[in-house]
Predict the 3D structure of the following.
Amino acid sequence: MSAVTKAVRRTVLSVVRRNPVPSSQLPEAATILSALPVAVVVLSEDNRFTFANSAAEQFLGISFPQLAQMSLDDILPEDSPLFLMVNQLRTGASSIADHDLSFDGPRLRKVGISVQGTTLAEDPGSVLLVLQDSTTVRSLDRQIAARNAARSITGMAAILAHEIKNPLSGIRGAAQLLESSVSENDRELPVLIRDEADRIRALVDRMEIFGEKPVTMEAVNIHRVLEHVRRLARSGFADTIRFSESYDPSLPPVWGNRDQLVQVLLNLVKNAADSLVASGAAEGEVTLITRYQHGLRLASPTADPDSRVDLPLLVTVRDNGPGIPDDIRPHLFEPFVSSKPSGQGLGLALVAKIIADHGGLIEVESRPGRTEFRLHLPMLAEEDDQ
Ligand SMILES: Nc1ncnc2c1ncn2[C@@H]1O[C@H](COP(=O)(O)OP(=O)(O)OP(=O)(O)O)[C@@H](O)[C@H]1O
Ligand SMILES: [Mg+2]
């Protein structure tokens, strides 16, 4: 502990040397460390926890007084890559970073973790580790990729609507005429043309939603939207599936477009139901959750690039199905990516576009038995923000 505080104090002092502030005015190093929003732990030579800040207590789900009685082996299996990293640090490496680690121990199960480790010169054998959940960081990356993918089909959608719909209705009309004038035996072909024309028309109609049309934003009660979607689902594609809700009744309204938010949630619930139905799970369940959550801010999609929007409203659609197939995962929000025989792969591309237009963010977490799509949405801006 004292070595850590010394190290932090030294770093802080080196910054201060460039911005002279009397060092007596600096907060104690331990105070700074405890307040850091990233998880920091220190392991002694025999891998016992000698320090954990409060972010680390939260990250590990164990309080420091308990951790102080434990060592790394108590929370991780011995083949965990973290042991290798800690040993490399003790045998010469001064600093190592590793990404996308999975922890699957008796007390700690997490995936997508980034760890940075460093040795402490003042305290040989001790190792300082900074642990971070990289799923948020990665989903931000993907979100940006999804925005771009959605944008590129925006232009295509407009062209398709223009250039395909008119000739298509001509083809369909001609096929219908043929249908009525040919003999019973020859009718199969014009019917095929008509059906295929209808299929293309339905696809183009769906793509058209991607077109850049101005939408009006208003204060939307997201619970009403969720209940509407649930009713639609229950009376249609999800009639065999159980729904449960966990709503925060005091949640303020979302700043958004009601019809678009219905589309988003309908697509997420439809995907959840599809996956449950396809897996034939007897206990298939979709859970709808709303929460208020501080702290997530993102660049505003429309206004000047420097402005940031708060995204305190969290809406989650969770299912207990088999999870997103591994090969789909990296391309989840791209158009035409689907694992379903008759899927168009447009649902999540549309979801990504609408949420991006709202200035929001989507996160995905999926493993067998639990898949979650989390929407972070803006609320009505307060007067003093405008
Ligand atoms: N809750 C989920 N559980 C498992 N897999 C999912 C889930 N949600 C999405 N997926 C996977 O992501 C793919 C893409 O979803 P998306 O909604 O974009 O297209 P789709 O459902 O296949 O077709 P469409 O929505 O256009 O009818 C799905 O085919 C499926 O493989
Ligand atoms: Mg879908």
